[in-house]
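Before drawing any conclusions, I looked closely at one protein, both as residues and as discrete backbone shape codes, quoted below without any editing:
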Amino acid sequence: MDAITHRLRRLRNWFLALFAIQSVLAVVITADVLASMSIVGAHGAAVGHLSDAYILSWTVGVLAALLVLALWVFHELLELKPWARTVLLVVAWISAASAAVSVLGAPAASATAPWLERYAVGIDLARLMPLSLLGNVLSLAAWGYVIRTLLSADVRAAFRCARGESH
């Protein structure tokens, strides 16, 4: 079991590292969009009377809540709770599929950027698209690693043993 615990801890640590990187990207993109909206005067129309600091604090708060939830699920995963493995696999497959679609659609998104800029006045899509692509590539790699680890034969066997089933 020590080898499985080690693999699951390594999985959690990689997830946390990539979560931190993606969280920074999310805050940077949010701040950039808010700044662009303020410059062109679209800020009031889109978010009313809310300040940029308020919106950014909500962004950070939601990311913190997601981090706490993820830490709890990973804690339960390290306890070999089958439901935690199932939850992570469902989230991983959905997230990996979403990231794959975004990565594969990036060339088409670049082609439509000039059209989108008419509606996203003041937002520098050419600058934000690489950040978005980086986030999606990291997401695809992270969730692919989660899927590969949780579907490996030895991890599946450890969860079966934890439930009391035979190999």
User: Anything to note?
Assistant: The CA atoms of residues 22 and 135 lie 6 Å apart. The chain has one domain: 2-163.
